[in-house]
Amino acid sequence: ARWHSALLQRMTQAVPSIRPAVISLETYTSLNALRGFRHFFRHAYEVPINYEQLVVNLNLSRTAFKQLEVDLSAFLKQLEA
User: Fold this and answer.
1) How confident is the model at residue 21, as a pLDDT?
2) What pLDDT, in 10s, does the model give residues 26-51?
3) For 73, how many CA atoms within 13 A lie in the half-sphere containing its CB?
4) Distance, CA of 36 to CA of 51 (rounded, Å)
5) How far is CA 61 from CA 18, 38, 44, 54, 79, in A?
6) Residue 55 CB partners (closer than 8 Å, separation 6+)
7) Distance between CA atoms of 68 and 71, rounded to whole angstroms?
8) Which of 17, 55, 57, 71 is 20 to 30 A from residue 39's alpha carbon, by CA?
9) Kindly report the CA angle at 51 between 50 and 52, in degrees rounded to 5?
């Protein structure tokens, strides 16, 4: 049931002699916060959505996307080296 959370945590950890960490702790923090919002959104059928919180999460998703692009680019460069 917690596999999304566990996957994100594992992606922050380097596996010696196999691979570097895939994402930074900063990216993990952003993605984990969005994961929590996704869980709420999927299961809150009759709860009104707070517009301000939606805007916060939209901005967070934009930031997380940029962070993820940087992290994945660095990860691929390290794999190539």
Assistant:
1) 97
2) 999 999 989 877 666 666 666 777 88
3) 6
4) 17
5) 29, 11, 20, 10, 26
6) none
7) 5
8) 71
9) 95
Q: Which of 58, 50, 13, 11 is nearest to 34 (CA)?
A: 58
What is the CA angle 45-35-18, rounded to 5?
150
DSSP 19: B
Lookup: tokens for 68: 């993820």
Using the structure block, give the residue that is written with the tokens 């992606």.
Answer: 11
Tokens of 28: 């993990």
Cβ–Cβ contacts within 10 Å for residue 43, how many? Answer: 8
User: In terms of residues, how long is the chain?
Assistant: 81
The identity of residue 69, as a single letter, is E
The amino acid that residue 12 corresponds to is T
